Each structure stands twice: as structure tokens, then as C-alpha cells.
Amino acid sequence: MNIDKTVAPPAPLLRDIPSLERIARELRRQVIRMVAPTGQGYVQQGLGAADLFAALYFGELRLDPANPDWSGRDRFLLSTAHNTAILYATLAARGMIDPALLGTYCQDGSPLEINASERLGTVIEATCGSLGQGLSVGLGMALAARRQKRDSRVYVMLGDGELQEGQVWEAALAAGSWGLDNLCLIIDDNEMQVEGHADRVFGMQPIDRKWQAFNWHTLTIDGNDMPTVLAALDEARAHKGQPTCIVARTLVGKGAPSLEGIFAHNLKLPPDAAAKALAELGDQGNGQ
After folding, report:
1. CB–CB of 85/34 below 8 Å?
2. Predicted pLDDT at 3
3. Model-level pTM?
4. Domains of the chain (ranges plus CATH)?
5. How far is residue 65 from each of residues 8, 61, 69, 74, 152, measured CA to CA in Å?
6. What is the mean pLDDT of the chain?
7. Where is average pLDDT lowest: 18-32, 76-90, 115-129?
8. What is the residue-wise DSSP string for 119-149?
9. Rounded to 5, what percent of the chain is helix, strand, coil?
10. Mean pLDDT: which of 17-21, 78-82, 125-129, 205-209 is highest?
């Protein structure tokens, strides 16, 4: 077997809590700025998950932004692929796409489509527009890495409503059976799906015990508390013999009090609401 031995230095990881919290706050502002021109979009999910994205891309994933094809990189798959405003904002902040592209979000012909696709390049590991598929793809990547004796890890983010897809549980059974400890699943448990409150649509609780039953090392955390998020990622990396599932409870609209807790899968965001949210997030009109 020919193994690609390409060596590239991973970009330095950031573990300073105040700095990561500042990054998460700026990512939230960028989500509002990106969605505001259309007046409607996936705002609530992006604001809620900003701490997870900041922790992953700046404090956890081994990446080389100048060489996104580096074979030793960690892989991240956004299975809830419509939650792209926060993903694109993060990629731009991490130096993996041109920040000027953010102004084209969801415009005709733009590579920044509403569902993240490989048209954007290898910064998108897989196109996951159909919900429920991301964990299966990540499972395959983690298994390949183990067989090829790579030390790279695979991270997958699912939504709690997405757990209603049967394919998720087939992948969960396989990963648990094979003890893929280089696979980490983050469930964005924001209690919201397109039809409303996730548990009132299709009861999924207790989520953590379900994953434990499939032989996953399982943690339940506050996904909006940066020290807790980093500690969970550290534990996942250190744990051996099982894949890890982090159930991260997040608040939709986090950071903008006028939006917090509002269940709107595709939020209407008129100019006055956008301006108010940006003011609440401390936007001074200069990105600071």
C-alpha cells in the first residue's frame, strides 16, 4: 500500500479562552451581516453554534489553511449542510477562503451556496445536502485513516432533528462496533427543526443514552460555554477504543438577546432586526 507521506505543519492552535470567545462573537456578527441582505436565512442555528465552530477551527482541528489538501489534516463534515453562514464565516476567519466571497453568500453563481458543496473546493470535505448522510461519510474517512495508519481525526456535526434519519443509526452502530476512536461526533442539540421543537415532532430524548447503547463514549455539555467545549474535545481526543459523541446543548440566536430562544428554522431578518442584533453583538460597523 502506498501511503502519502506529505508533511505540512499544522497551523498553530489557539487555546486562549477570551480570544476564542471574541472569535465566536465576531462569527456571530458575520452571520448577521451575510444573511441580512436576503432578509431571511439560517441565522438562529449559526448564532447558536458559533462557539462550537470557533473551538473546532481555531482550537482543535489540525489544518494548514495555506495547504487545504494536506493529507495529514483533520477532517470536518457539516452534515447539517444548510447551516452554512456560520461555516463560511469560520472558513474566512481561518484564512481558508477569501473573506470577499462572503458578500456573495447565496447569490446566483456564487460558490457559497445555501448547502455547502464541494464546488467551493477541498475546504468542504463532502457535499451533505441530504440530512443524515454526514456520519456515514465521516465513518468511511475515519476507517480509511485507521487502515492507512494516519493519525488524523474526523469530526462530524449533526443536528438533533437530523437524528430522526435511520442512516445515522446504521453509521452509529458500525462506528461503535469497530471502535473508531478517531471519530468525533458533535450533535448541535438546539431543540429546533423545520417543523418546530424537535422533541415535539419526534421524541429523541435521552439522546446521550442512545449513543451509549451503540458503544459510543458520550458527553453532554453546554455548547455555548467555551471552556466546557474545549474540555470535551480534549477528552474525545484522549479517549481510546470508542468513538466519541458530544451532545452540545446550544441556544438558538445565542448572543443577540432579541433573537435568543426564537424557534425559526429559516428566520425572517428585516433590516431593523438585523441592525438591532448587530448592536447587541457589539458591532461598531468596523468588524470589531
Report:
1. yes
2. 41
3. 0.91
4. 17-280 (3.40.50.970)
5. 10, 11, 9, 12, 16
6. 89
7. 115-129
8. GG-TTS-----STT-HHHHHHHHHHHHHHTT
9. 40, 15, 45
10. 17-21
